[in-house]
Write a structure and sequence with these properties.
The chain has no helices and 11 strands.
Length: 119
């Protein structure tokens, strides 16, 4: 059974930093693009950041320069370092593992972790 286990998050004040981690022990981690998505109340889930197995990254415009995604293929973990947090970053953050296998998309989701940015 595929498991993506997120940790981190919680309540932080505006301007502070927080780090999310996601462990994926049951998949062939290095062949997956790993991503972080978020969903705020009343809004659609959106991509925050993603990193390929080779380390190429992309970010939502709203987090560029503030968030950094990284991965450790040996430990099968992906991290999201979030700096200069804003109230609009408040959302449930989901870890995602994604790949295409012979034209078929294979994707897995974590259970989500709440990040609340508030004073």
């Amino acid at each position: 059974q595929v498991q993506l286990v997120e940790s981190g998050g919680g309540l932080v004040q505006p301007g502070e930093s927080s780090r999310l981690s996601c462990a994926a022990p049951t998949i062939t981690f290095s062949i997956y693009t790993m991503g972080w998505y978020r969903q705020a109340p009343g809004k659609q889930r959106e991509l925050v950041a993603a990193i390929t197995g080779g380390g190429s990254t992309n970010y939502a415009d709203s987090v560029k320069g503030r968030f950094t995604i990284s991965r450790d293929n040996a430990k099968k973990t992906v991290h999201l370092q979030m700096n200069s947090l804003k109230s609009e970053d408040t959302a449930v953050y989901y870890c995602n593992a994604d790949r295409v296998d012979f034209g078929q998309r294979i994707t897995y989701w974590g259970q989500g972790t709440q990040v609340t940015v508030s004073s």
